[in-house]
């Protein structure tokens, strides 16, 4: 039989609800299991691929056309791709960008990440919005039956799993990379004192470190299990608790670390760090129906009434009703009213449920880094 001049369906996405989606594969081959979530960003797929907060998840892009800008050396947000797989509607057959060094398919294959295309992403997104995030199995192995893949999806769960330990650094290190001019779009931090910041790596993104450095911070990044006592010995001006993947209730050791640091030094929590702060303050977290994933989520800053378009990536949220007196909800997600930021002035605490560094954008919330600087500055002056 003559070979067809086009690729035929050679992969399946099997969801735990029993639905089977035929697709074409690109990137790596094999069989993987993960939680399927959808991302509404129009651009920035390379940053999404290298965001450690997606560990254990298949990311479905709602934007139908992916791959046209290829990939480059500058946009990676961590040392590797941590997500379980990529699901898209249309894979670009050409790349057109002056920074492109290779195609998306080659990039994924080199990093052993599976991808599928020519699948109805709109229909899957509607299903996820209606039923919530679903466990799925991606497979290119024709020897595996549909029933076998379905059983795999129903026997795996992401809830209660410590995903942070698989993405954190192995040992402390100093962030020494200079912030290039294209990343240093806000010069408010120049000509100020240098602030020593300890950043807990729960899955930290490089652009968080770049933005802190731009505001005049000298940063030491430490593993998720780094003892609070060792952090305090370094006498930092502030501590950052970073973003990260999974269930905050699955990492009680991190909550205990946060508790030991609170009140001793100003702290800033981002995403997972925000959730851990919520628990450390006595609050509760819960799993959202389908989470927030995208670069276009509106958030209201309750302190000044300003609406910020934000970049978000989380499946868990803090229940504001469970927080003790004195903890202030500073930001609210306007799509569903969920808590998007906290402050506790008595203990010099601030946190955001979303990404103020927002690589590749938008940058409406970059002022949060300046607020962290001001929090450290006022604490030093009061000492």
From TrEMBL:
CDD domains membership: GATase1_CPSase (cd01744)
PANTHER family: CARBAMOYL-PHOSPHATE SYNTHASE ARGININE-SPECIFIC SMALL CHAIN, CARBAMOYLTRANSFERASE FAMILY MEMBER
Family that this chain belongs to: Belongs to the CarA family.
GO terms for cellular component: carbamoyl-phosphate synthase complex
Entries under HAMAP family matching the protein: CPSase_S_chain
Biological process (GO), any one: glutamine metabolic process
Top class in the EC scheme: ligase
Subunit structure: Heterodimer composed of 2 chains; the small (or glutamine) chain promotes the hydrolysis of glutamine to ammonia, which is used by the large (or ammonia) chain to synthesize carbamoyl phosphate.
UniProt-recorded name of the protein: Carbamoyl phosphate synthase small chain, chloroplastic
Pathway(s) the chain acts in: Pyrimidine metabolism; UMP biosynthesis via de novo pathway; (S)-dihydroorotate from bicarbonate: step 1/3; Amino-acid biosynthesis; L-arginine biosynthesis; carbamoyl phosphate from bicarbonate: step 1/1
One Pfam family linked to the record: GATase
NCBIfam families recorded: CPSaseIIsmall (TIGR01368), PRK12838.1 (NF009475)
Catalytic activity line of the entry: L-glutamine + H2O = L-glutamate + NH4(+)
Function noted in UniProt: Small subunit of the arginine-specific carbamoyl phosphate synthase (CPSase). CPSase catalyzes the formation of carbamoyl phosphate from the ammonia moiety of glutamine, carbonate, and phosphate donated by ATP, the first step of the arginine biosynthetic pathway. The small subunit (glutamine amidotransferase) binds and cleaves glutamine to supply the large subunit with the substrate ammonia.
